[in-house]
Amino acid sequence: MAKRKKLEKGQFPETKFKTKLDERGRRMMQCQNSIPNGKWWKGQICNEYSLVGDQATAVLCFRCVQKHVEPPMQRGASTKSDKPRGWKFMKEFVAPDGTVYHKGVEQPSLKGTLPATKIEVKEPKKKMTKQEKEIEAAALGKEIAKLKAQLFAETRKTKKAEITRALSKANRQLKKVM
Question: Which residues form the domain of 111?
Answer without folding.
Answer: 85-117
